[in-house]
Design goal:
By secondary structure, this protein is an alpha/beta fold. It has helices at residues 3-19, 25-32, 51-55, 68-76, 111-121, 138-149, 159-168, and strands at residues 41-45, 60-65, 80-83, 96-102, 122-133, 172-177, 181-187.
């Protein structure tokens, strides 16, 4: 996340859940079901208040975020948290079943670093699931303009471009869900 964006999210944390839509568990499961085994340990990277983790039935979710205020809110929801940089995940190699990045990758300056960190953290057969917004759609163009207008340093990618980056990062990548909001999933080869 760019440093400026981290500060905004830190200050915005208490209001975040009231102003954001709830995470859709079905949309998230589309990517998670591609894992070759059960998903029991999940890193919710850039997970903020843990709204994606709370929508899923995963035994051991951990929210990783750079904004302290967001982590405080996630802990208030009973979630385990770790403050950290998405491009330098503070976990052991091949220690999780899934890495989830929901509506946050566009705020992360080092996208290839985030993908590399996920590849290092995920076990063989595990999955990286990224939920993002397509800037080539009408609503996507509006979102890009709005984020830049409020001062975010956001970088959005079309679904195929992000899929190609995930594949270049060592995953078997696909786009299992398309639209204004889309999903890219990458399975780490066994």
């Amino acid at each position: 996340m760019s440093l400026g964006d981290v500060g905004v999210f830190h200050r915005f944390a208490r209001a975040y859940d009231r102003l954001m839509y709830a995470a859709d568990p079905e949309t998230l499961r589309v990517g998670l079901t591609l894992a070759e085994g059960p998903v029991e340990t999940l890193l919710d990277v850039g997970g903020g208040t843990g709204r994606a983790s709370r929508a899923l039935d995963v035994p051991r979710p951990v929210v990783v975020d750079a904004a302290r205020g967001m982590l405080r809110e996630a802990r208030g929801h009973g979630l385990a948290t770790v403050q950290g940089d998405a491009a330098r995940l503070p976990v052991a190699d091949e220690s999780v079943d899934a890495v989830l990045v929901v509506d946050a990758l566009h705020h992360m300056g080092d996208v290839d670093g985030v993908i590399a960190a996920a590849e290092r953290a995920v076990r063989p057969g595990g999955v990286l699931v990224i939920r993002e917004f397509d800037p080539t759609t009408l609503r996507g163009r509006g979102l890009v303009a709005a984020e830049h207008l409020v001062g975010f340093d956001s970088q959005f990618y079309a679904a195929e471009a992000l899929r190609d980056r995930v594949a270049a990062g060592g995953f078997d990548a696909s786009v299992p869900d398309r639209g204004f909001g889309y999903t890219v999933a990458g399975v780490k080869p066994s």
